[in-house]
Design brief:
By secondary structure, the protein is of the alpha/beta class. The protein contains ten helices and twelve strands. It folds into two domains: 142 residues, Rossmann fold (3-Layer(aba) Sandwich), CATH 3.40.50; 124 residues, Rossmann fold (3-Layer(aba) Sandwich), CATH 3.40.50.
Length: 281
């Protein structure tokens, strides 16, 4: 199993995708040898409300300026992407598409359904994880969520990958989806946090190591006792100590009228993203 077909979303509004995020996505594709397609979604802002508030607030002018900003930002991001991918020798393609502002995340999720993996940069700005959340829970495909300031894919290798294992369905799905990365990694560790949920019992990682061994992956096992700490706190302490290049974990949550209700570990990792995380749902 390999990844051949990667996707990364680019944005022009309200904030343009940073050059650093584009660089990390390209570096990941270069490392895996996969084709990378960038989809830039230009936003269309429907003008609503009566003529009086529109006139007083000059909403038509605001909409024109926002849509122009989006178009300019998308074009600039695609140009930057093409230049970086060409320089890195990465097989690449680009798409420029348009949809309503509040449909961007769903649009990217739809595109991700026909790709092996989506590389989704996140930011700490309001709504900075919306696209990543939509792809995780609506595409049926694995997603690598990363903060460009903390990702280190441009080193060309995965020195260490950590698999978070709690015996759940989501963890099993993520384990299978991450096999291409695990085969690339110089070192793999399986982390089980015990005392946090019943399925994460002592010794649970041994069968994961057995399974990975049959795929040519040698894994070391770690167990950490939560001892009353939150799962987010446990993961933070472990990741600060290990500093892996990638973490693999199942994503927990569901959509309620388009609002994602996330599990504790999923929410924590999406909001803080101390290291890039491959998530599967």
């Amino acid at each position: 199993m390999t990844w051949s077909d990667l996707l990364t979303p680019l944005s022009g509004y309200p904030d343009a995708t940073s050059p650093a995020a584009i660089e990390q996505s390209v570096a990941f594709a270069q490392m895996t040898g996969a084709k990378l397609t960038a989809v830039a979604v230009n936003v269309r802002i429907p003008l609503k409300g009566g003529w009086i508030p529109n006139y007083l607030l000059d909403m038509p002018q605001f909409v024109r300026e926002a849509e122009a900003q989006s178009a300019t930002g998308c074009r600039a991001a695609l140009d930057d992407f093409s230049a970086k991918a060409s320089a890195a020798g990465v097989n690449h393609a680009q798409l420029l598409e348009t949809c309503d502002l509040y449909g961007v995340a769903d649009h990217v999720a739809e595109r991700a359904k026909t790709h092996d993996l989506c590389l989704a940069p996140v930011t700490g700005a309001p709504g900075g994880t919306a696209t990543a959340e939509a792809v995780i829970f609506a595409s049926g495909r694995p997603v690598v969520v990363f903060d460009a300031a903390r990702a280190r894919f441009d080193g060309g290798v995965l020195n260490e990958v950590v698999v978070a294992w709690d015996g759940s369905r989501g963890a099993a799905r993520a384990l299978a989806d991450a096999l291409p990365a695990l085969r690339l990694a110089r070192a793999v560790r399986v982390l089980t946090v015990v005392g946090e949920k019943p399925s994460a019992r002592g010794g649970a990682g041994r069968d994961v190591a057995r399974h990975l061994g049959l795929h040519g992956v040698v894994a070391e096992l770690d167990e950490v006792d939560a001892v009353g700490r939150s799962i987010g706190g446990v993961l933070d302490d472990y990741l600060k100590r290990r500093r892996p290049d990638l973490m693999v974990m199942g994503a927990f949550g569901h959509s309620r009228t388009r609002e994602f209700i996330l599990g504790g570990a999923t929410m924590h990792m999406l909001r803080t993203t101390p290291v890039p995380v491959l998530m599967s749902h």
